[in-house]
Amino acid sequence: MRKEEKIYKILESKLSTLEMQEKYLNLLNFKIEENRKSMGGLAIIMILLFLAFPLLIQTKISEISVGPFKLLDNTFAISIIPSVFAFCYYKYIMIWVDLSEQKNIYKCLTSKIFDIEYKSYLNIRLRSFSLIDSIENYNNNNQKTTPFGCLVDLIYLPVIIAIILMPYFFEYYCANFLFHKYGINSILNFIFFFSPIVLGLCTISIFFQVGKKDIYEL
Fold first, then answer.
1. H/E element holding 69?
2. Cα 28 to Cα 115: distance, rounded to the nearest angstrom
3. In this predicted model, what pLDDT tens digit does every residue of 97-109 receive, in sequence order?
4. Please, are residues 206 and 94 in contact by the beta-carbon 8 Å criterion?
5. Helix residue ranges per DSSP H, 58-120
6. By Cβ atoms counted within 10 A, which residue in 10, 62, 116, 178 is the most buried?
7. CA separation, residue 113 to residues 157, 164, 172 (Å)
C-alpha cells in the first residue's frame, strides 16, 4: 500500500466529517508555515557560521556579536562553531522530515476535500511556493523529452546530493581543523571535537530512518 493510500485511510477513520478535515487543514497549514520559517532561520545561521569559520581562522574577524552578547575569544568561537553548525543541520533535517510528512498529508487532505486527484494541477497549486517542490514538479511532468527537461534531469540529482553532503564536508573540515590545531587533550577540546561528529552521525541516521519509515497510528 502506498503512503498516500495509508494517509487516505487514516483521514477517513480519524477525520470523517468535513468540519474536522477543514479544522485540521488550517492547523496543518499553520504548522507548515511555522516549520518553513524555522528552516529558513536555521539555514541563515548555518550560512553565517559557514562564512564565519574560515574568517575566524584567518583572524579577519575580531569579535562576534549576537544581539547584546559579544564573543571576543576567537579560540572558543572556532571551537564551538562546528558543534553549533552540526546541531543546526541536525535540527534542520528533523524539521524537513516533519515538513515532508505534513505536505503529504496536506495534499491528501485537499484532494479529499475538493475531490481532485492527488497530483493534479489544482492540488499542486494549493501548496505554498517551494523551490525544491517546483523543481520536483517540473521533473515529474512529461517535459523530460525536451532539451531543457533533459538538462533539468541531469542537474537536479547532483544539486540535491551536493546540498545534502556539503554540510558533512564542512563538519569534517571543522573537526579535522580542531583536531590538528587544539588536539583532544582536555575535556572541553574532546567535547568540541566529538560533538559535531556525533551530531553528524545522528543526522545520517535520520536519512536511513526516513527510508524505512512507515505510517502508523499510536
1. strand 69-71
2. 19
3. 899 889 888 888 8
4. yes
5. 74-113
6. 178
7. 33, 35, 47
